[in-house]
Amino acid sequence: MTRFLIPLLVFVLIAVFLWIGLSLNPREVPSPLIDKPAPAFELPQLREPGGVIRTADLNGQVWLLNVFASWCTPCLEEHPHLVALAERGLVPIYGLNYKDGREAALKWLDRHGDPYTRIVVDREGRTGIEYGVYGVPETFVIDKSGVIRFKHIGPLTPEVLAEEIMPLVGRLQQ
Amino acid sequence: MIPELGHFAVIVALMVSITQSFFALAGAARGNRLWMSIARPAAHVQFALVALAFGCLAYAFLSNDFSVLNVASNSNSQLPWFYRLAATWGSHEGSLLLWVLMLSGWMSAVALFSRQVPTDMVARILGVMALVSIGFFLFMLLTSNPFDRLLPPAADGRDLNPLLQDPGMVIHPPMLYMGYVGFSVVFAFAIAALLSGRLDSAWARWSRPWTTVAWIFLTIGIALGSWWAYYELGWGGWWFWDPVENASFMPWLCGTALMHSLAVTEKRGGFKIWTVLLAILTFSLSLLGTFLVRSGVLTSVHAFATDPARGVFILGFLVVVVGASLVLFAWRAPRVGLGGQFDLVSRESALLANNVLLLVAAGSVLLGTLYPLFLDALGLGKISVGPPYFEAVFVPLMAPAMFLMGIGPLARWKKASLPDLAVRLKWAFGVALVSAAVLPLTMGRWSVMVAFGLLLAVWIVASGVVNLLERLQQLAATSGGSPVSYLKKLPRGYYGMLLAHTGVAVFIVGVTLVNGYETEKDVVMAPGNTVSIGDYTMRLERFEDIVGPNYTGIRGVVTVLKNGREQNILFPEKRLYSVQQMPMTEAAIDTGFTRDLYVSLGEAVEGGAWIVRVYHKPFVDWIWGGAFLMAMGGLVAVSDRRYRLARAARRQSADAKATVAA
What we know:
Chain A is an alpha/beta fold. Chain A is 40% helix and 20% strand. Chain B has four domains: 1-162, no CATH class; 166-414, no CATH class; 417-517 and 623-633, no CATH class; 519-619.
């Protein structure tokens, strides 16, 4: 009898893990990068192909890093909120154009609006890996000393911006 | 109105399936023939209702009814009509409707083709299948209604994902689902056997064709998906060990084991418990695959549109179906009894070893697929398991299975002799060894992996030839007649086996040679430039603008030259789909029996030049050719006279013809 129970036990074990897995919504899991220095990058700019941006250049201000791509459908969902945020001019938004083509990205921005202070190009997705990006879009809040304070996975919603990101930005800017 | 009719049909179908499962199972338990007799007509009614619902949804798509949320999210008025039709199952909700359409279709087929099966068995089978369909109807109605309205209606739809706008993608999901869902039949057979305690050779003979047909569909479905990835994703790869691919591969491995185990149960009455367990596992893995793909537990990158309620529902359903079956298994299996004894060296042993290897392979794919989830759940960090793991585990597991594939069919049932087998197979092994040593040299470069792959492939074919010759000799010794009449005497099932095994060999050749000898170049090309790859030269003539029904783009005109002579002209495209603003690479492929030439456009660079990626892929089409042969083998085996499935089908079609004539 007992050996016939083995398949059941194995299945129960798997089911328990699947259950835990369901509650591990990737959007809610805190990134291991929170409160760690933002990984340094030195990347070409999208709009000025010669220009380069280094993380060190950005220290001394609170900034958002938004990972986006022209092929990413959920990005369209959050894009109007980013454009609205940029119009208020409260915080600089840097774009990380992830695994995308320059032409495609520029066309996409022409069409949907460009909320970004500046955009860096991560053609191979290497910087994305260092930031632990596992889906586009993602948004990071980085403080004056270059430490990641918050990470949002998936499209930004007005609620997340109003209730979490902007209050945090306000506190960090003081 | 039409969408409401579809919605209503699904609700009625749910009622029918509740009625069907209750009366069929209770009737079988109490021996009430009247109750049991409900099962067959109920199955047909259910199928008709779901077909009606499916037709309503297809109509909504074809008529551009953007007041239906599903249509507005997944279609567009610019979309050609055949993709609008395919969009019916392109969304989550629509694919669930396809699931239940197929489930009820299989149910209806079981009701039709089970005249020789005892009434209580049929009632149990249809009752169990109806239980499964209840779960899916509820899932659809509670969390994923395909007929939800969007008010006010959208002016136009958001379009079907451009990746899915492809002929391969139109037929891939239905094929795959036919396979997944088809395993519900043998699952129901297994549960019915556990319930009734009746598990004999007759049971195995009834289950076998259903299993094989489901397996054929799954094989074709997986091969189509792989082919689609090859030409549509523009990377030239054909298998990525993505969770979604693994979800379809696990039931295939388990189903393959099941087919072989059923053979033993039918012919020798052995492996009974093992067969029942495999039947349960195969369908469980199909359900698990659905769960993994639909719940978002394993976020395959770029997919965020998942609803937690759906995940909870499917997991609950999975626990009920699989948990209950395994409890039933633990409770009833000990009474099913064991089969006959067999020696360590025998066909049973070979098949058992093959089964265990296939199951362990399925388990290791499962482990690799779920490992990131396990680690995450235990708080040990986030990782992803890639192709290196799967390749490292898979090849060593499959190699002995391939070796046994040569021995098993020649070994005698019950007790075989090792020295005898060695003598009979020495020529096959010799041919395989020599081929492995020599053939790679003709390709230009000798490598261990290539030699090993070819060794296995030639071994499978050569031992198959030995097997066939031996069978013919036996026939010649026992009966008169011409050699052609001997060929006719061998059963179709036997030819099916040979054909499917040859398919495996062809598949191995494809994988081995393409891995060993493919070449790839990334070059910047302007019109007039050439690039040489393998024995070929490709000349980029010019770029042309193209305008499709719902996209615009650019295409290159590439001439393929061999020894200075024109062979073919290829048109690699880069499309921009206007609604979703999604760029798509359409690779151009010159397909050949011994090689593919593959050209895809990368990115535009300054001065009218493009980054162009070219591949030379020797024997890559053998991969899908092998899968096709395996499926054909299954088809030949199913047509074997002893299942009577073919005869029943012929009678049905004759009836249908008579009706039409009348």
